[in-house]
Amino acid sequence: MPKKQEAGKRQSGRRSPGKRELPPTAWAVLGLLSFPGERTGYELKKWADSSLRFFYWSPAISQIYAELRRLEELGYAASARSGPEEARAKRRYAITDAGREALAGWASGTAEAGPPVLKHGLLLRVWLGHLADPERLRAMVGEHLERTRAELATVREAVAQAGEVPEWAFPALALRWSERQHLAELELGEALLSDLAALDEPAGRARQADGDAPTPG
Residues near 38 by Cβ (< 8 Å), separated by ≥ 6? Predict the structure, then answer.
């Protein structure tokens, strides 16, 4: 076939033999491709922002494209550039049979998923509360609660949208978990405000003054 006629044909890399050790982000990107349809890198980023970030994280667009290149090299994904009917050429990606097989093996694997990683910026500030202005610290907790309420509303919108698509039944479960997690975060934030208020009382200030190391050792 002449090269000109090959333009626009789907391209896929060779499949490397054996089981592949990939980072979780690569599996997440491949997971986005496992649902029906073909998507551009930009569309994958938008979907990650409206789903993955609520319970895992949303990779940067540059990282998504890096993982797509890796997946193509492994033969787990394939891509095709749009034809002249579109004003701006776009490359759309789809999962291959080999990619779906590998993803299914990873998703149902027996390897330990690992503990959840918590990096709570607000709690780091609270941990250093002896150096902070108490009023500003309480204000930061209040701001965190407002952001969490706004995020909760966004999560609930995503839950409602996922509930309308039968193929998204399992993503909907993850989003409902995220909804409960945000509700728990609101409860924890309110409790933290109460704890900070207790420290403002005379007995609380005395405990701070008498303390040595905050943890054993």
Answer: 80, 92, 93, 94
